[in-house]
Amino acid sequence: MVKKDAGVKIPVLDKDNYFHWKVKMHLHLMSMDERYVDCIEKGPHVPMKFASRVGLLDDAPDVEIPKLVSEWTIEDVAEVHKDKRTMNILFNGLEQEMFDNVINCTTSKEVWDTVRTLCEGTEQVRENKMQLLIQQYEHFHFKAGETLNDTFSRFQKLLNGLKLYGRIYQTKDSNLKFLRALPKEWKPMTVSLRNTKEYKDYTLERLYGTLKTYELEMEQDEEIEKVQKKGGSVALIASVNQLEDDNEEAAKATTSRASCRSDVSKGKGKMT
Fold this sequence. Notes:
Radius of gyration: 27 Å
Strand order of the largest sheet: 1-2
Largest sheet: 2 strands, antiparallel
Shape: elongated
């Protein structure tokens, strides 16, 4: 469900998909004004001024203090008002039940933090959830019956969940973790990749694309072997070989789709 703000759709919170809403709302605020994100993370803008310290030496440094409302400039008023704009966007992104919990909040940061606590739990609960995800990461492994795509999707979802809690692994570490999680039939390829320096700098999507190409080649070899065992003709074997180019294109397309799925979380770092 979505609402509109000046013609732009506002994501509406579904408590069962809070993390998705959190990412969408963060991006929505960022796209409108980066200062809106500062409002939910740091609080409203407070106009400041420098004043001399009374009773101190003339060369004592000035101290920064809040301005009186009567001293606000037009620019100050505009900056302070951005917190109200942010609150309005957040309020329109909440259903009635959740809105009732934040109706008395006075700043957008208070609204954001309250919704976060209601959906994620307290700081202790969030810490426990993060530790659980870390354990899942440390013990991540291929599951029987999974395809490469299944394992990749599960691993990518795990990394995204960790990132939302502020836990980000270096690319070389997550790549190595994924390679080590694959079953023994992948060992020739994983060892080959680990012996190169370049794989440490691969994005997870590029690593997946490389492995996907290898998977398609293995499947093709198996098909050829089956045909040969059945005494298949040269023409039939050639027909199997003809699939190679199509398989490579399929691998590229799959990698492209995987990259699109992860774009929403790239470059955001920790979101509070």
